[in-house]
Amino acid sequence: MTILTLHGTSFDVDAAMFDLDGTLVDTLADFGESLNRMLAELGLPSIAAADVATRVGRGSEYLVASTLNHVLPKDGRVLAAIEIEALNAHAGAIYQRHYGDINGRFARLYPGARAGLAALADARLPMVCVTNKPTAFAQDLLRQLELLPFFSHVFGGDAFEKKKPDPMPLVRSCDALGTVPARTLMVGDSANDAQAARAAGCPVALVTYGYNHGQPTREVDADAWTDSLANLWVSAAP
User: Fold this and answer.
1) pLDDT score recorded for residue 75
2) d(Cα 51, Cα 53) in Å, to the nearest integer?
3) Statement: residue 129 has pLDDT above 80
4) Is the pLDDT of residue 238 over 60?
5) What tens digit of pLDDT does each residue of 180-198 get?
6) Which residues contact 12 (CB under 8 A, 6 or more apart)?
7) Residue 53 above 90 pLDDT?
8) Is residue 110 a contact partner of residue 25, using CB atoms and an 8 Å limit?
9) C-alpha count within 13 angstroms, C-beta hemisphere, residue 38
10) Peptide bond before residue 165 is cis, with ω within 30 degrees of 0
């Protein structure tokens, strides 16, 4: 058992789960470049970084669909549902191809992220990465940034039948860790992470610098907040 302390809030835990985008790594520029390459290939106008940030965190399907809805001309024509579905699928395939080429090229590790993970690793606390990013992209990004060895498992948005904010990814991650949710801390940057944690029965801490769909993270129901993962203090449970 390990005690994690964050700004005066203590968590008596056996393991920890970490979100990726907006929590450990700033990948906004990767998303923006991939989306704009997709839009250019489709002959559509580009999207600004500020508009990308509000769409990150719910999986690539939502990211692509909401981006298309944002940039498509509002000329009064109503697209049939089958047309929208086909367009989203076509655009999604283009986006995945470009993201595969770009993944990690413009990303940067958040200050304090490596220090926080290292502190938990030094305490021999098991960790998994639980993200809505496709698993292969998540693993590759973590490998590029030399973070992959910190995690016993990496579960992406395609690892389970449902994505965050559904609790399933967290519950299944706890199963993989061999821990119970009540003793497994979820660390993320958004309401998706907090809602999934609450539904799964996990304690949750949020970073304040992530995306969170453009809303202040401190307004989200969580147990603790921090502006740096380097603020995680670790001690052995009595």
Assistant:
1) 55
2) 6
3) yes
4) no
5) 999 999 999 999 999 999 9
6) 1, 2, 3, 183, 237
7) no
8) yes
9) 30
10) yes
As a whole number of angstroms, the distance between CA 237 and CA 232 comes to: 15
Q: How far apart are CA 20 and CA 104, in angstroms?
A: 12
| Angle at 121 (CA atoms; ends 117, 122), nearest 5 degrees | 120
What is 113-164 written as a DSSP string? HHHHHHHHHHTT--EEEE-SS-HHHHHHHHHHTT-GGG-SEEE-TTSSSS-T
Q: Which of 2-6, 79-83, 103-107, 180-184 has the lowest average pLDDT?
A: 79-83
From the list 70, 57, 5, the residue with the least C-alpha distance to 31 is 57
Angle (nearest 5°) at CA 131 between 55 and 234: 120
pLDDT at 78: 56
Positions marked active-site: 19
Amino acid at the residue 80: A
User: Cα(4)–Cα(235) distance, rounded to whole angstroms?
Assistant: 7
Per the rule left: phi > 0, alpha: psi between -120 and 50, beta: everything else, 59 is left
